[in-house]
Design goal:
The structure is a single chain. The protein has 456 residues and is mainly alpha-helical. The protein has one domain (2-7, 19-448). It is 83% helix and 0% strand.
Amino acid sequence: MRRQRDNSELLSGSILKHVFRLALPMIVAFMFVTSYHFIDRYFVSQLGDVATAAIGMAFIVQMVVIAIGVGVGSGVNSYIARNLGAGDEETAKSTVKHAFYLAAGIGAVLGIAGLILQKPLFRMLGAEGELLELIVAYLTIIFIFTPVNLLAVVLNNVYQGWGDTMSPMKFMLLGNFLNLIFDPLLIFGYGPFPELGIAGAGYATAIGRCAALLYLFYKLLIQHRPVQVSLTGFRPDRRIIRGIFQVGFPSTLSQVLTSVAMGFVFWVLNPFGTDARTVYTIVFTYEMVVFLPAIGISQAVSILTGHNFGARQLDRVNQTYGTGIAVAFGMMAVPAAIIFLSPHTFAGIFARDPHVLELAARALRITAAGFAFSSIYLCSVASFQGLGLGRQYLIANLMRLYFLQVPFTYFGAQLLQLDGVWGGLMAVNIISALVLLIWHRYIFNYQILSGKIQPL
């Protein structure tokens, strides 16, 4: 009964209150996820600038794995939320089983493929010698534990779809706390632990993810939260699989293409050397930090939109979108302004070399000017996910990455060298925000209100 009340509560009451109630646990959770990357890069940066570049380039492939998990998870999240909003709890329960088996199977395939393809892939991106060795040492561990990572990400979305954002927060807290403890122990070999260098960061990540997944299994299978469900007796249901991938496939493809676009930026930076790659690693590390509030708010927007669209409460769908943007923009503007005003302070946390420090400070000042505008883009695509509009989500990402980021960074480098790359990234955030704002208004006013697009 308590779960049913929680589901119905999303259909009434203050939108702002619901946004904060759903978003704050996720912001805390994402804070710890980002702190995991931040901490990894901090400790790895003590091994030198080449190691910093290595973990930055490795993150491209990590993003592909995360992207597939997030993509499938977003499909699960959206499908569960829309079915609960429509009052169909049995289909929502069956979706949990499908989520588990999809994540386990896809994770196993990805792990094997990654182990086979990692060396040729990074050679193609220009990595060689020590840089390539460090990348492979780190990613080998990550790929071995890919099924664990994918299961954790997808089950996390099961809880979110049910309107439970506290359990994912606890899961991420546990995983990242263990990562924080084991990172320095395994990288530098303190006490009885072996000195593993950059591979130690991979092992620390694996330990944290395994512990977090065990916690999720305990909550789901022993405590029966957010719902009582058994993973035995599974029978694939085409309708549910189609419903998951209606949003999940475009989301997955979009996330993978994001990784490819990031790899393209590293390729554009090849002529400028390892220092430029290190700087880009520093830039997107801080970008992740600043994006934390908007990511949490956008997830709340997706959940609220899914539940209210399923219940056909269109006024609340519209209010959710506007409220999400206003809150996310305000929460992003503050850290972006701080970085813009003090770039040397933040660059100095990772940069060991004075030349890299100057390059990174300049890059941070330029890119930070566009950070807050990403809140509009993130809330728009999150609303698309909640509405079940996977195709529109994919088109939005393609526009942002391949019609804007790829040409802007490439031609920016040709015309203005490194400043052109950083300026291109800033312009992409601003332009894509304006385009998505207009497009979302059009879809809502002319397709949602008219009934051309239905929840299920």
